Amino acid sequence: MRSLAGSSTAEVLPENVLAKGDRMIAWWTPTCRRQMFYENSERRGRELNGRRFPQPALVWRVDNRDLKIRALTENKRPAATTTLAVAPFWNLSDDGRVCTGTMRRPDSARAASIPEWERGFYESAFTHANVGHLTRHPAGFEGLWSDLAGKRTPFPVKTLIQLPQKLAEFVRGDGG
Question: Residue 43 falls within a domain, yes or no?
Fold first, then answer.
């Protein structure tokens, strides 16, 4: 009977949580500024390493220790029908899955682990592009982040690539 009921315990969810299942949690973060680290064989990110950058609003999803991230074009809590955008980061695949490499990951998908997931993502080194086109910025990925390095301006949402994927699909694990 216990195995059918699951092993989750009740928890109070913060208002940034969008959905919660037994082994899955999805949340959003508003725009902010974060330090990012770059380390790659082409050394294209060397001048960006350790700098602070404006970030777009993001949607995060953890399911069975896999992390996926999408961007939002508006800095507000998304609804089920909100259309998502490509998160313009290295180490992400087409479906938003983070190549975790040596990233420190929590063992759970509890609300209390959200800060650890975010810290693990931003404190890991962005090492490689998994997707060909991450941004609409005319100078591409390096141009976008070079323009934003050290700036206090908002993230330019016009550079985000809109997807057909809705938040509800992302939360369910549908679509890419």
Answer: yes
User: Cα–Cα distances in Å, from 7 out to 1, 25, 92?
Assistant: 11, 15, 30
H or E, element range at 91 = none
**Any domain includes 63:** yes
Listed residue (63, 139, 141) closest to 96, CA to CA? 63
Rg (CA), the chain: 16
* pTM, entire model: 0.90
Q: Quick check: is 154 in a domain?
A: yes
Is residue 11 domain-resident? no
Q: For residues 167 and 139, is the Cβ–Cβ distance under 8 A? A: no
* Domain count within the chain: 1
**pLDDT single digits (tens) 24-75:** 999 999 999 999 988 875 666 777 888 999 999 999 999 988 999 999 999 9
Nearest Cα to Cα of residue 130 among 90, 88, 176: 90
- Rounded CA-CA distance 82/108 in Å is 27
Residue 165's domain comprises 22-172
